[in-house]
From TrEMBL:
Residue ranges occupied by any Zinc finger DksA/TraR C4-type domain in the UniProt entry: 87-115
Zinc finger residue ranges, dksA C4-type: 92-116
Zinc-finger in keyword set: yes
GO molecular function: zinc ion binding
Record's keyword terms, sorted: Coiled coil, Metal-binding, Zinc, Zinc-finger
Renumbered residue ranges of the record's region Disordered: 209-241
Composition skew (Acidic residues), residue ranges: 223-241
Compositional bias segments (type: Basic and acidic residues): 209-222
Protein name as it appears in the record: TraR/DksA family transcriptional regulator
Phylogenetic lineage: Bacteria, Bacillati, Bacillota, Bacilli, Bacillales
Coiled-coil annotated spans: 3-30
Amino acid sequence: MDTQQRQQLYQQLMQEKQQLEQRLRQTDHYGLEESMSDSIGELSGYDNHPADLGSEMFERGKDLALNDADEHHLEEVNAAIQRMEQGEYGICKVCHQEIPFERLEAVPAAEYCIEHHPEQHSSIRRPVEEKVIGYRQYFRDGTDYNAYDGEDAWQEVERYGTSNPPDFFREGRNYNELVIDQDEQRGYVDLTEGFSITDLQGQSDEITEITHTDTYQRKEKEEQLEDEDLDFIGEEGYDRP
């Protein structure tokens, strides 16, 4: 490698370094200098539906990957400039032979020749949570499964509020019914089990958590009104069925 070629490669490295530093500076490291809540204008993301932040999470992950790639490439460029200043530039780290100028012209920060360049392997590792979670159904609405599942866990936290709009539930008459499977019993399986451990007002008396939904209470009121109507008809002289 002659002096002119070395000077050309040095200029390429300095140009790449300036471009990388300028991009990281202008983008504030791709927006990672501020928190995600500040970047999207949300006070908190805990009370939002996961789908509401789906696009933001994707963009955040992309910014992390781009920032990591630029920082890693900048480290390689700085290391190449340091090797050039120490007189070790253009020498393969494995075979200690001179790297061809054509390769350095294409990849100025190269540390290896073509023959000894480390191979890039795709990771076969899976997310660690899959060892615990596994792949199976979590919302089991069948009558043959009465154990605590993912649906029960969701219902426990859903009652504290979600970001689902009212039109998400077509049949709900008030905001207390804007939950998934709001007509299901909670804390017990069969209806008679709920009656056996509650008082006259339908409270569980701190034995277990029993939640009577508005649907059930409304049904009781309708039956009560129906009985009152039948009693009124009987008082007027009509025969009750």
